[in-house]
Every structure is written in C-alpha cells, then in structure tokens.
Design goal:
single chain; 181 residues; alpha+beta; 4-stranded antiparallel β-sheet; 3 helices; binds zinc ion
C-alpha cells in the first residue's frame, strides 16, 4: 500500500508584531519563555538591532575584583552600565542582558581598541636614579613616551615627586604602584 503523507504548511507568526512572516536567513530568531517558543520576524529583529546599535563603550578594569565592567551607549540614547562583561572569541557577552549579536561584536571591537591603547600606555621602563647629585625617576611607556621626574625625600623618608612635572594620569598611577612595591 502506498501511504500518503500530507504536507502541511506551518505558518510562522511573529510574537512581537503578530504578523505572519517567512524566515530570511538560515534560521529563526526565537525566545523561550514559560515553556513557549516565541518567534521574532526579521523586520522586528532588525528594528531591535537598529535601536540597540552600540555607539560607544567605556571599559574599566578593576583588578582583583570579579569581572571587568563596561558602560554601553546605544543609538536610541539608552545607556547600560556599568555592567560586568565576558569576552568571548569574537563578541562580548553581558550576563543577564539580551543584546543583538551585532552589538556584541561591535563591543568586542571597541574592547580590542581599548586593550591595545592600555598596552601602549604600560610602562616598559622604570628606573630610579638616586645618587649624591641626582634623584629622579625615568619612565618610558610601550608607545615610547618618556618621562623624567625629579623627586626628593620628605621628613619621614617618603618620596615626594616634583609637583611641577606634568604627567598623564596613567603614568602617575603606574609610578605610584612601582614606588609601593
Ligand atoms: Zn515582527
């Protein structure tokens, strides 16, 4: 016996705009909520993606305390953060927040630029010259910026940097760190 198997069209309905749609890419966007699969049509997805386009992000690394943090600025004017983030291979994940993949990829690009800048700012040379005639610190960053800061000893043997020397904040922080070591 020839068994007839009927083909039936499953209509896809968007959970956001309520309209029937055809999938555009190889797959479907969906959310799983209360045991239900909620579909999102390509139009609604694009609208969401467009609203949550990342315009800028500020990263802060708080060494020693959990995950690093980021503040994200979106095209629609909304600001998210500071929130903790996790760097994946080609995007950045914000635990607890649903963001379009394009936004997560953009965040990774911004993070890479931030990390590269941080690397340039790191001191590759730190030298303390403390002789009878001269007391100064020589510091050079990975970017090649050089700084010479005179210092003297205070009443309790503490080092006092010449206040007339102009230093970027990131250089000063590293020098203070080295002086504590
Ligand atoms: Zn829709």
């Amino acid at each position: 016996m020839f068994q007839q198997k009927q083909r039936t069209l499953l209509e896809l309905k968007c959970s956001e705009c309520g309209k029937a749609f055809s999938p555009k890419n190889q797959g479907l966007w969906y959310r799983f909520l209360d045991g239900q699969i909620l579909l999102t049509c390509p139009t609604c997805y694009e609208k969401w993606e467009n609203q949550y386009e990342v315009i800028n992000a500020e990263f802060s690394d708080n060494p020693g305390y959990g995950l690093p943090m980021v503040t994200i600025y979106f095209k629609n004017g909304q600001v998210l953060g500071p929130v903790s983030y996790m760097a994946e291979n080609n995007h950045i994940e914000i635990p607890g927040y649903d963001l379009p993949m394009s936004a997560k990829i953009k965040l990774k690009e911004l993070a890479k630029a931030y990390w590269a800048e941080k690397e340039k700012q790191k001191l590759k040379t730190f030298r303390l010259v403390d002789t009878f005639d001269e007391q100064y610190i020589f510091a050079e960053t990975n970017a090649g910026d050089q700084y010479k800061i005179r210092f003297k000893y205070g009443r309790y043997g503490e080092m006092i940097l010449d206040p007339s020397t102009k230093l970027p904040e990131y250089v000063l922080k590293q020098i203070e760190q080295k002086m504590r070591e």
